[in-house]
Design brief:
Largest sheet: none
Strand content: under 5%
Number of strands: 0
Shape: globular
Distance between the termini: 12 Å
Helix content: 40-55%
Order of helices and strands: HHHHHH
Structural class: mainly alpha
Number of domains: 1
């Protein structure tokens, strides 16, 4: 589980925020939109964990395991991680979503 959290924290993931940075020519950050939902938002770490519709069910499980009310989704990522107390539920979420095939 630690591997998934480490990869995520080091930006070793396939979210558009990183893919666009690596492409030639580089894609402007504001144009690195999520292709998995219709919210027309930049697919960054905050969007992935807290907002993306594709991961709605996994997010419910994550919030439940972390004892976080679903109405707290507006909290920013750093605050969410502090609330979560343990990195294990977040690592499970990462494993079951963006690292599913690794």
């Amino acid at each position: 589980m630690r591997r998934f959290l480490t990869k995520f924290r080091l930006s070793d993931h396939n979210l558009e925020i990183e893919l666009g940075r690596r492409k030639k020519p580089r894609i402007e950050e504001k144009n690195r939109l999520c292709t998995k939902c219709n919210k027309n938002e930049v697919e960054n770490e905050v969007h992935f964990i807290l907002d993306c519709d594709l991961y709605k069910e996994e997010r419910k499980s994550l919030f439940k395991e972390c004892n976080v009310e679903t109405n707290q989704e507006e909290e920013r990522l750093n605050n969410f991680i502090k609330i979560c107390k343990s990195s294990i539920p977040l690592a499970k979420y990462l494993k079951n979503t963006i690292y599913k095939n690794t």
